[in-house]
Predict the structure.
Amino acid sequence: DIVMTQSPDSLAVSLGERATINCKSSQSVLYSSNNKNSLAWYQQKPGQPPKLLIYWASTRESGVPDRFSGSGSGTDFNLTISSLQAEDVAVYFCQQYYSTPTFGQGTRLEIK
Amino acid sequence: EVQLVESGGGLVQPGGSLRLSCAASGFTFSSYAMSWVRQAPGKGLEWVSTISGIGTTTYYADSVKGRFTISRDNSKTTLYLQMNSLRAEDTAVFYCAKVQNSGGSRPYFDHWGQGTLVTVSS
């Protein structure tokens, strides 16, 4: 299975500042059929199920605020929140769907 | 609006069985693959199983293969997970999740239910 490793495990950022979470895969998740990276990002708030934010590494799901963006290719990906809001406090997970789906361990985002 | 409502969780002894259900609404159920994803208390997410929209193709994580069976009834728009030979390490919240395609391969999960807790303990 492809191993997904996120960094950092936790992150504290001031309101209005930029937050960046990294996700690395143990092998490339670039899908040759469409030249897109099979990488999704989810947000999970306390007591709630995960919510899809980003798929194909950089496509924002409908209704997701544009302060959330995804970037990267191959084995190295980032989720960036351009201006942190209080409601963004959550755990964020990356997931590859190039092969048997696997998730990163999660990054806890807090307010500094 | 897509709605996924799980049920059937509870406390079961090691070696026991449990059947989870997920009632779906708000979309054409048979057109989409469906999955189960679990989360042990305080831990990360683990994909468990996926079934294609028409129910002919299934996929399982190695950790549950041979013990769990995924199925669906498209006439009832309901997804199931039959869990046998349960172990303590199966203790988790089990989420029902809608997959973005019909076949079930290369899935990501665009809608999730609220989850149902399965506790395996004597």
Observations:
- Chain B touches chain A at residues 44-47, 59, 61, 95, 100, 106-115 (CB under 8 Å).
- Chain B has a mean pLDDT of 97.
